[in-house]
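User: Can you help me understand a structure? I only have the sequence.
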Amino acid sequence: MTEANDWNANVIKEFRENGGKVSGMFEGFPMILLHTTGAKSGKARIIPLVYLADGDRVFVFASKGGADDNPDWYHNLLAYPEIEAEIGTERFAATAVVLQGAERDEYYAKQVALLPNFGDYERKTKRVIPVVELRRSAA
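Assistant: Let's start by predicting it. Here is the structure, written out as tokens:
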């Protein structure tokens, strides 16, 4: 297991033990666990991310800290958009939808207003950082 996988496993464990709250660099941030399917491997993956809630809508951002390439989890969502997610103690099914144009810009700006480091990520890269809405599936 890589160092990143070990780190994610620890965050996931803490998230589940504390009703969705974690300490360290993500303390106080809204956290979500995405359950994806590997685009190449087909294996189940879980990734902890910071998210934005806007009413009943949930958004995640493929920032990868401002890297010039998208994170693996984003490619997984493109290949397999039907996912599950965990917020707090709730687990739900959702469909990942990549936002475009003005709507994408609006929600990225909302995230920057709440967490200015997302503006730093945007300035570090030439790519447009994808914004993905997680649309809850009907029960």
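Now, to help you interpret it: The longest helix spans residues 3-17. Helices lie at 3-17, 72-79, 101-114, 117-124. Let me know which part you'd like to focus on.
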